[in-house]
Design goal:
The structure is a single chain. This protein has 119 residues and is mainly beta. The chain is built from no helices and eleven strands. The strands form two sheets. Strands 2, 4, 5, 6, 9, 10 and 11 form a seven-stranded mixed beta sheet that branches.
Length: 119
């Protein structure tokens, strides 16, 4: 199966920046990836979706502040978060949906990484 490993996150002051990364491993033929977050007491929400070969869509709350990028050779995606606000505090999850080289559909989640924005 496909596994996702996240890194990055941590504590940052309001207005600061952080970068998250998510590396997918496995026999992947095609993959679409996305970033979600879940704040305490709230439902998990989509932050950014990166369809395979398509353009990234961002949640309105992060447009202009968050940017995604990807290294297709490494099946790795990044979430650059700038101008962070306290309301961005959440556990961030990487998600992947796609097809393996054996033509099996898959969906995988990363382990989650905590982002805390506080002075």
């Amino acid at each position: 199966q496909v596994q996702l490993v996240e890194s990055g996150g941590g504590l940052v002051q309001p207005g600061g920046s952080l970068r998250l990364s998510c590396a997918a491993s496995g026999s992947i033929l095609r993959i679409a990836m996305g970033w979600y977050r879940q704040a305490p007491g709230k439902q998990r929400e989509l932050v950014a979706s990166m369809p395979s070969g398509g353009t990234t869509n961002y949640a309105d709350s992060v447009k202009g502040r968050f940017t995604t990028s990807r290294d297709n050779a490494k099946n790795t995606v990044y979430l650059q978060m700038n101008s962070l606000r306290p309301e961005d505090t959440a556990v961030y999850y990487c998600n992947a949906i796609g097809l393996t080289t054996t033509r099996l559909n898959f969906e995988s989640w990363g382990q989650g990484t905590q982002v805390t924005v506080s002075s």
